[in-house]
Amino acid sequence: MPERQSDPKRLPNETPRPPGELEELERAWAYPPGWRKISEINNSLVGVIYIGAAFLFFLLAGVLALIMRVQLSHGDNRFIGQDLYNQIFTVHGTTMMFLFAVPVMEALSVILLPQMLAARDLPFPRLSAFAVWAYVIGGLVFFSTIFYGLSPSGGWFMYPPLTLTRFSPGDNADFWLLGIGFIEISAIAGAIEIIVGMLRTRPPGMTLDKMPLFGWSMLVFAAMIVFAFPAVILATMMLEIERSFGWPFFNAAQSGDPLLWQHLFWFFGHPEVYIIFLPGAGLVSMIVPTMAQRPLIGYRLIVVALIATGFFSFGLWVHHMFSTGIPALSLGFFSAASMAVAVPSGIQVFSWIATIAAARDRFRLSTPSLFILGFLFIFAIGGLTGVMVAVVPFDLQAHDSYFIVAHFHYVLVGGMVFPLFATFYYWDPMISRNRLSERLGRYVFWLMFVGFNVAFFPMHVSGLLGMPRRVWTYPRAMGWDTLNMISTIGAFILALGVLVFVVDIFVRFRRDWETQRTQTNPWNAGTLEWLPSDLYSMRSVPIVTSRYPLWDRPNLAEDVAAGAYYLPNAATGRRETIVTSPIEARPEYLLEMPGPGWAHMFSAVFTAAFFLLLTVKAVAIALVCGALAIFATLVWCWQLDPPPRGRVEIGGGISLPTYMSGPSSHAWWAMIVLILVAASLYITFVFSYLYLWTVSPQVWPVVGASPLPDLRWAASGASLMLLSILAFRMADRALPKPGSISLSAALLMIAGALCLIAGVGIEGYAQWRSGLRPGENSYGAMVYLEIVLTGQLVATVAVMTGFALARLFTGKLDAQRRVSFESAALLAYYTAAQGLLGFLLIYGFPRMLE
């Protein structure tokens, strides 16, 4: 960025701005009228829908919790039957973990991050909208199963063999497996949006060390989703395949192992705890400095702590499996790792306490502050009990008891729900014209704080007295009645607090859907989200020179609102935002953003229908819906990648290009993140393959014996994979100049895709010809699963290649306008690399054993 623009005292633009400029900006970002408003993709609308849906699921799951507490209030209770209790128990846990905890944090990021970054919007607003509608549809259908007896009853962790077809016949478990797998796709879509948005749409000057801590926490949160969620996606895929087709991954009678499910589930499940906690910590790190009216103490340490927590969390999954017969050396390692994660968490807690203690004048004791203090108290107890269960001998005693129920509710509710309610009260002036009641807010806090501790603290004691978790009733003679009755009373007090909050929301929440104008900075906060904003976010994009720009530059709000900074207009006449470099946040190009549309919504609807119809075995209709989903997605993507419009002025003498490809493009970054997801999924598969070999080495073939195909098959398949890479590389160089069509580029793209298809086809044929069948044993199941995993990528590359060809022959793809080709080529390169690794594993590993 030129020196002139880095000087905050020299504003990029002169004011007043030309007449009509603001009206043009408002026109570009206006919502569609009437019922067409639901086709809008602006974060200010999509984010509110997202939060509303997530909170609805929180309320529904809370009602289920109350029903369970009534059932457990005294021994030998017959309020509800065992099967219904198990369904309610499963849906409660699943809804809280998958439909509330993670989505509500992604929802907050959709609505808060663009404001904190002073960006017009995140870079893929239609992807965000797709994720929201997919989540809403899939979540509502899944939850509704409780009303017609189709809910799963195997617990939110769905351990096999209980969830195998033999013990769980019917479609109940399939609703969990396909429904949750589908919702995880929505979560990953949100993670891609967050990562690219945080790294590429920061305002000029906001280097990484000036990024808001909520942004840092969401960046780590999204990275954890990328690496953790593929494990549960693979696990649900394997269990559903075993239930539907009999491939024995978890059936011990056919050389599978049910413990593999626990490894995969908790490799996702334990990071999930921190995936939920870290955004909450980021929210606290934003609220505490405002209430203390001073910068947060230990900013850099907190950033390191956030990254360290994310890193450590992947080494703790066995923490949940101490009682499953793990070797002693592993127990020692994972016990130490479980304790070590308390260090970065402690750094954050001490930084918040130090900031509160060093407050100017006095720490402001408002409703958000009360929820923050409540969070510190509850989370500290949860953390201490976490260290207790990290000690192996204690865990062996407390495992599967109500002590664990108390522990994880103290961690999750303390670490996430209390910061969330602090967020509602802190940021509601940014969204609503009326602030929530401060007086009622204090009632809400005390009811929730007292109710929570009355409900869950006695569970520590009942657990230590031997009460097991996951039971629908217990004998009166056990002496647990009093403690359980106290817990039930506490649960209703907690629910009363939530009810008062809901009433306050209905009475006071007012939002003008045609504008974003609300109250401006009532807390005297120092970060950008409190700048004056409208549907287009800020009137102009400021230069950032500190972590608290509103405190350091008192006139910043007025200058931004007057259009004195960058991009005070709709430079291209359409929606747009500035894309900056990932480290230094230097302006690189102007991203033209899509407007309202229906294709993403139809894509979400038909994708949901595809998964849900598969659940009830309506395969033919499901396939039709799957084809419609692909068609709607292609229509959606066809509208992207607009033609270059030359360079445009954004102010301060800076002109930016309106098109970018290659590693500087936001689309390239998104594809790289998607490839990381695919790579995580495949690494998890490799782990599963090697794990099952350690369990059942006798079913792995030996050299020269059936069913191990000859190496010539592997050589042929690998050669085709390499040829595919070469073909796409040559097609890249053969892309035509703008305005022309290259037949050689088209033929090379077709050749590249056909090589991939043939490579996977040869592998499948060779295995089938050797006599290996997927339902025979765990080895056969893993070999054919490898073909499925690579085959689905090959199918995606084929569709993307066809899409690129269509754009090539319609003049929308050339050597300059080339993003659609680059995306297909990147995925093709990765697919070929994964295929090569697959040949090495399937053909090389059994021979290496010899």
UniProtKB/TrEMBL annotation:
Q: Which residue stretches belong to region Disordered? A: 1-20
What are the protein's GO molecular function terms?
A: cytochrome-c oxidase activity; heme binding; metal ion binding
Pfam families noted in UniProt: COX1
Q: Where are the transmembrane segments?
A: 45-68, 88-115, 127-150, 175-201, 213-239, 273-292, 299-319, 331-358, 370-392, 404-427, 443-465, 485-507, 620-638, 667-691, 743-762, 782-806, 827-845
Subcellular localization: Cell membrane
Keyword Iron belongs to the record: yes
* InterPro entries for this protein: Cyt_c_oxase-like_su1_dom, Cyt_c_oxase-like_su1_sf, Cyt_C_Oxase_1, Cyt_c_Oxase_su1_BS, Cyt_c_oxidase_su3-like_sf, Cyt_c_oxidase_su3_a-hlx
Compositionally biased intervals (Basic and acidic residues): 1-12
Q: Which domain of life is it from?
A: Bacteria
| Similarity comment text for this entry | Belongs to the heme-copper respiratory oxidase family.
Q: What is this protein called?
A: Cytochrome ubiquinol oxidase subunit I
Q: Which organism is it from?
A: Methylocystis hirsuta
